[in-house]
Amino acid sequence: MADQVKIGIIGGSGLYKMEALKDVEEVQVETPFGSPSDALIVGTLEGTRVAFLARHGRNHTYMPSELPFRANIYAMKSLGVEYLISASAVGSLKAEAKPLDMVIPDQFIDRTKNRVSTFFGEGIVGHIAFGDPICRNLATVLSEAIESLNLPDVTLHRGGTYVCMEGPAFSTKAESNLYRSWGATIIGMTNLPEAKLAREAEIAYATLALVTDYDCWHPDHDSVTVEMVIGNLQKNAVNAQRVILETVRRLSHNPPPSDAHSALKYAIITPLDKAPVATKEKLSLLLKKYL
Ligand SMILES: CSC[C@H]1O[C@H](OP(=O)(O)O)[C@H](O)[C@@H]1O
Ligand SMILES: Nc1ncnc2[nH]cnc12
């Protein structure tokens, strides 16, 4: 079993490994919810052990709808992760958020249709608070890390709404314009289920959204393609990794409090002494504080 690690990183499209990780160990984690997308790569960044997971697998073999979100979050929890940073490619729904910019969103709109985004069920019912789906304090650490680096040609947008769509096809223009009329800032296919499950697992979660395109609404820009996403992500991958490094450095020196760390305190409605033993066992990693 690997050492306990408090900081986890999930890398999305175009960010399949962390170059700066040292003393790397590949950890295959099995969970009651199946296998994660890939082995967790535990290594040292800035003197701190962290766990990295390629969200779609290192060869990008999982579609957003196929991602084993529960296994991914459970695996992070089983290593001891308390803070989870998600690095994700997104389309921009606002002119001012340009390709290569970074956005730290603070809200989501759910347009997924086909995702399991809870650990509950099978006799144990829980309803987490999700009004503020991103950990504000972790988002602040991330934003301050970005600002401290003064990255050339990168504008940071603090706050904003991430529309999470099902995919895998990109949006129609009508959809893209609808989301713009709702005031949304960026669009992707992955972060909402992850954020919900992280909250249920009492892990603080924040998103580093890397803008790769203007989706399909912008009259002066071509509609999004995979080539565009990966091309821009590769241009920005060095910056993204610098941001993650600086965030890890700050988090390890000064880990902030997070409401997420006690998210289940008032969430579980089923009396646990009346709950099915098999489900209590399945969820014991998440529930043990409350059993
Ligand atoms: C390759 S374009 C669409 C793909 O990119 C984003 O992935 P991630 O959030 O893992 O960076 C988007 O959500 C889609 O999965
Ligand atoms: N325009 C877009 N729509 C959905 N997911 C994306 N990921 C990157 N760009 C995207």
What would you say this structure looks like, in words?
The chain is an alpha/beta fold. It contains 7 helices and 11 strands. Helix 1 (69-79) crosses helix 4 (191-200) and helix 2 (136-149) packs across helix 5 (226-253). Bound molecules: the ligand CSC[C@H]1O[C@H](OP(=O)(O)O)[C@H](O)[C@@H]1O and adenine. The site of adenine has 13 residues, from strand 5, strand 10 and strand 11. Adenine (ADE) is lined by residues 89-91, 165, 170, 187-189, 212-213, 215, 224, 229.
What topology does this entry show?
Blueprint: E1 7-11, E2 22-27, E3 40-45, E4 48-54, H1 69-79, E5 83-92, E6 102-104, E7 107-111, H2 136-149, E8 156-158, E9 161-165, H3 173-181, E10 186-188, H4 191-200, E11 204-213, H5 226-253, H6 277-282, H7 284-287
Helix pairs in contact: 1-4, 2-5
The structure holds ligand LNRAV4D5 and adenine.
CA-based gyration radius: 18 Å
Look at the helices and sheets and give the structural class: alpha/beta
Distance between the ends: 24 Å
CATH class category name of the domain at 87-287: Alpha Beta
Tell me the strand percentage band. Answer: 15-25%
Question: What's the total count of β strands?
Answer: 11
**Mean pLDDT, as a whole number?**
97
CATH architecture call of the domain at 87-287: 3-Layer(aba) Sandwich
* Rough outline: globular
Q: How many H/I helices?
A: 7
Element string (H = helix, E = strand)? EEEEHEEEHEEHEHEHHH
Associated small molecules: ligand LNRAV4D5, adenine
By CATH, the superfamily of the domain at 87-287 comes out as Nucleoside phosphorylase domain
Largest sheet: 11 strands, mixed
Spans of at least 5 consecutive residues whose pLDDT stays below 50 are none
Query: What is the name of the CATH topology of the domain at 87-287?
Result: Rossmann fold
Helix content: 25-40%
